[in-house]
Every structure is written in C-alpha cells, then in structure tokens.
Design brief:
- It contains no helices and ten strands.
- By secondary structure, it is mainly β.
- The protein has a ten-stranded antiparallel beta sheet with strand order 6-5-4-3-2-1-10-9-8-7, with no helix packed on it.
- Strand 9 and strand 10 form a beta hairpin.
- The chain is globular and about 40 Å long.
- The mean pLDDT is about 85.
Length: about 140
C-alpha cells in the first residue's frame, strides 16, 4: 500500500448552464494499491465534507467502480456501483439516517494507472435520494 495525495472535486449540476453548479473540493492524503487487476483508493473524510470519522474506498476495475463509505458519522455503510449506462439502487447513509437512493451512471472515464499511483477518474451520474432530491453530479478524482 502506497501513500498518495488526492484532489477530489464533487460537482452538483443544478441547471443547464455551466455556471449553475455547486462545487466541493478536497485535497487529502490517501492510500493506493493494486491487487489482481483492481486498483484500490481510500481516504478519510474531513470536517469539510461533513463526514468526519468516515473512510471512503474505491475499487476500480474494467467492470466499473465500487465506492464504499463507512464510519461513525453514518448509521449505515453506503455502497454505490458506477457502471456506464447502468442503474444502481441502495441506501445512502447520512448523519441523519439512511435514505433510499438510485444512481444512473452517465459516463466513467478511468485513467488511473495499474502500475503506479498516478492518473484520474471522472464519474458523471444522476442521483435520486427518495423524498429529498434528484440531481446530476460529477466526481473527479486525481492522484497528485
């Protein structure tokens, strides 16, 4: 397992214009390792994300990306699978309880190297949290 630095940019696209988005950017320490063709990235969430005490892990392979978030800030561990053109349903753990969610992945661009810790990952998806919100989001992760 190797220590890395990650730049994570999350965008929630509110309207049809590029100016209509909310953005959250985080630069943090993380871990990288590769095993049997799958790249694993992990990092601890911060006060900035509102998920202090949680760890986010990504398992990245040719089939897609599995994101897991677990820790003391959420009552239920969260798993989201991102595969281009596919729909995923599950529960999203928040500090206020678990909410039913549905994720439709529009696009995944994986430029993470399997040989060394470098590259980027871009995920474009729609997420619907039952009774709370529905929006389009982008997640851009870069190993810096």
């Amino acid at each position: 397992m190797r220590d890395i630095m990650l730049k994570i940019v999350g965008r929630q696209i509110i309207g049809d214009l590029p100016d209509e988005e909310e953005q959250l950017e985080l630069v943090t320490e993380g871990k990288y390792h590769e095993e049997n063709g799958t790249v694993f990235l992990s990092y601890d969430e911060s006060d900035f994300s509102g998920m202090t005490g949680c760890t986010t892990s990504l398992a990245i392979n040719d089939d897609g990306i599995l994101m897991k978030r677990c820790g003391e800030a959420v009552p239920l561990d969260t798993e989201i699978r991102f595969e281009k053109g596919k729909r995923f349903t599950g529960y999203y753990g928040t500090p206020f309880g678990a909410v039913e969610m549905e994720v439709l992945t529009n696009d995944v661009v994986n430029n993470i190297s399997r040989d060394e810790p470098k590259g980027s990952l871009n995920i474009d998806y729609h997420i619907s949290l039952r009774g709370l919100s529905a929006s389009r989001s982008r997640l851009d992760i870069e190993i810096i």
